[in-house]
Amino acid sequence: MSELSALVLNCSLKPAPTASSSETLGQELLDALAEHDVRGEQVRVVDERVSFGVQTDEGDGDGWPSIRRRMLDSDIVVIATPIWLGQPSSVCKVVLERLDAELSETDDEGRMLTYGKVGCLAVVGNEDGAHHVTAEVYQAMSDVGFTIPANGVTYWVGEAMQPTDYADVDPRPQKTAQTTKTLAANAAHLARLLRSSSYPAA
């Protein structure tokens, strides 16, 4: 079986090259996936000039079609988002809105093109919102055809009302590191199962 691939959609509000805790955790997940023979890349969505909308291509320089091509070429898709006011970032919500178009994009057997792809989540923030963010994003990813693995999220939430970012935490919290490794193992396992046995025709 050929090598698996993963794409991290980094939904930080910060453009590159500004440091991003979402990027840090996303890269740690890619590193953990590499231990299971999964190659990967990370895209900082805010740098791609993604337009608002719910179509696969909103025209006029929309950056989503390029991201979408890479997403459809990937076996595992990770949304990495910070928490703001207990919510996924606005960039993350734009990504979810763009994924809405996949509801009407199907193959010859009526299956969404995202069927057979594993959806994962990486969340960072200084508020107690990780479970709420996970619930919102996972519902949307499931709706548009992604399959969620067991223990399908890794996250770090710092002490409330403190300025510490995940990227600045040294050493990394052992629990987050272990959760990231578990997520990588489960995601790679599920992706291989889905590749070898696809969903039935719709």
Can you characterise this structure?
InterPro entries: Flavoprotein-like_sf (IPR029039), FMN_Rdtase-like_dom (IPR005025). Residues 7-158 form the NADPH-dependent FMN reductase-like domain. This is NADPH-dependent oxidoreductase. The chain is an alpha/beta fold and 202 residues long. The chain has one domain (4-196): Rossmann fold, CATH 3.40.50. The protein contains 5 helices and 6 strands. Helix 1 (21-34) crosses helix 5. It starts with a strand and ends in a 6-residue tail after the last helix. The mean pLDDT is 95.
| Counted beta strands | 6
Calculate the terminal CA-CA distance, rounded to whole Å: 26 Å
Largest sheet: 6 strands, mixed
Specify the CATH class: Alpha Beta
Question: In percent, how helical is the residue content?
Answer: 25-40%
Rounded mean pLDDT score: 95
What is the rounded Rg? 16 Å
